[in-house]
Amino acid sequence: MRILLIHNPKAGDRKHSKKQLMASLTRCGHQAFYQSTKKHGWKKAFKKPVDLVVAAGGDGTVHKTAWQIIETGIPLAIVPLGTANNLARSLGFAGSADEVLQSLHCGNSRPFDVGMARSGSQTEYFLEAAGGGLFADYFPAAKANETKGASPEEELKAHLTLLRELALDYPARPWKMSIDGKDISGRYILWGAMNIRSAGPALHLAPKAKTDDGRLDFVAVREHERKVFVKHVDAHLAGRKEHVPLTPRKFRELKITSPPGATHLDGEPWSSTMKNKEKARSRVEIMVKRAALMIWHSSATKTLREKAS
């Protein structure tokens, strides 16, 4: 196959260099083209006629790559080299770089729904989740506290510790909202409209989320669930796998009136370009754009997903 490799050279280690990744693709008989996300004009690489695009990096690299091929029909595969790797894990790209690259030769593309958030005249898309409250404030704090040279395991532990500290006294705010016409207004510490199973520092909050069913999973933590949520974070810090203590709800449309706190899309602050008056008064609508992206699934993807779960 003709494969375009989009690579964040600062992710991973020496085993994940340009030379090593390209060698793996060549050994498998692919015609590979390389592009670093750190090079100026990297998006021009998508003009090449290819059969598959591979994103090698963390969640940020995957997002940047996905937006370039959305609604093109060109499938995406992922080599997970980041800290949380939420999207890669949810889709089954959970093995080593070699395992993922060697499994590309035999497979097919499957549709992937994309989340859509609209407020006033502004419309944005997300792959993983949209949310408000705790996570919206956690993400920028996590970026500000990143340590250079830390391993993915060390960084994930640091992120979980930070989230735990914030969760202990984060204020529950009154959110006026509804899902599919049913009022669910209340005081929430956090809420999320999830397209995949994991959110934040690899927390499995929506274990039954599917990326091709035309629906999102609503997950939330209220004041009386604070201790349960903190206990769930503690379990992850201790390396234990426990069932999520929350009850996700499937939905097709979420509406929010006058958001009282910060919101995010895939970990990035949202509505930052809107004027303050418009931001304060605008209704937010979150829904699904069906099959906007195609994901490459090989015969080994299911096995790798089972190994990670």
What is this entry, summarized?
This protein has helices at 18-27, 59-69, 86-91, 97-102, 134-144, 152-169, 226-237, 276-281, 301-308, and strands at residues 2-7, 31-36, 52-57, 76-80, 107-119, 122-126, 129-133, 173-179, 182-183, 186-194, 198-199, 203-204, 216-222, 249-251, 253-257, 263-265, 268-269, 284-298.
How does this structure look, described?
The structure is a single chain. The chain has 309 residues and is an alpha+beta fold. Helix content is 28%, strand content 33%. The chain contains 9 helices and 18 strands. Strands 5, 6, 7, 8, 9, 10, 13, 14, 15, 16, 17 and 18 form a 12-stranded antiparallel β-sheet that branches. A 4-stranded parallel β-sheet has the order 2-1-3-4, with helices on both faces. A hairpin with a 2-residue loop joins strand 16 and strand 17. The longest helix has 18 residues, at 152-169. The protein starts with a strand and ends with a helix.
Count helical runs.
9
Measured between the Cα atoms of the first and last residue, the distance is: 30 Å
Would you identify the regions where 5 or more consecutive residues have pLDDT less than 50?
none
- Helix residue percentage: 25-40%
Computed over alpha carbons, the radius of gyration is 19 Å
Please give the oligomerization state of what you see.
single chain
Q: What gross morphology would you assign? A: globular
Q: What is the averaged pLDDT score? A: 90
Largest sheet: 12 strands, antiparallel
- Assess the beta-strand content as a share of residues: 25-35%
Secondary structure: number of strands: 18
| Structural class by SSE content | alpha+beta
Q: What string, H for helix and E for strand, traces the elements in order?
A: EHEEHEHHEEEHHEEEEEEHEEEEHEH
